[in-house]
Specification:
- The protein has about 120 residues and is of the alpha/beta class.
- It has a single domain, classed as Transcription Regulator spoIIAA.
- The chain is about 35% helix and about 30% strand.
- It has a 5-stranded mixed sheet with strand order 1-2-3-4-5.
- Strand 2, helix 1 and strand 3 form a beta-alpha-beta unit.
- Helix 1 runs parallel beside helix 2.
- The termini are far apart.
- GO terms for molecular function: anti-sigma factor antagonist activity.
- This is Anti-sigma factor antagonist.
- Belongs to the anti-sigma-factor antagonist family.
């Protein structure tokens, strides 16, 4: 299954919308996007996981790696709108206490770039 990743920025904040399955085969695509993104130095990255059907340990490791790199620079990585299957993985692994998890994408990040 293909993984779709799209990003949008607003005032130093980035929303990364992910759709599909994050697994051993698709995780490198997400990793590459984070590497590109983190080069721009955003202070806050929110991952919109409302379109993610499945995420395995490889995907979680990509998220943890990005979180670590952002924290080293005083930034934050947050997870938004995880579906029940992804939320369960976060809870079982204890990562729901590592990441800030939002029910939906925070409203202040829904403003489009053109209005900025």
């Amino acid at each position: 299954m293909e993984l779709k990743v799209s990003t949008r920025s607003h005032a130093g904040n980035v929303v990364v919308a992910v759709a599909g399955e994050i697994d051993l085969y698709t995780a490198p695509r997400l990793q590459a996007e984070f590497t590109r993104l983190l080069g721009d130095g955003p202070s806050r990255v929110v991952i919109d996981m409302s379109g993610v059907d499945f995420c395995d340990s490889t995907g979680m490791n990509v998220l943890l790696s990005a979180l670590k790199r952002l924290k080293e620079r005083g930034g934050a990585l947050e997870v938004a709108a995880p579906r029940p299957a992804v939320r369960k993985i976060l809870q079982v692994t204890g990562l729901d206490s590592v990441f800030v998890v939002h029910e939906t994408v925070p409203e202040e990040l829904l403003i489009s770039e053109s209005q900025g």
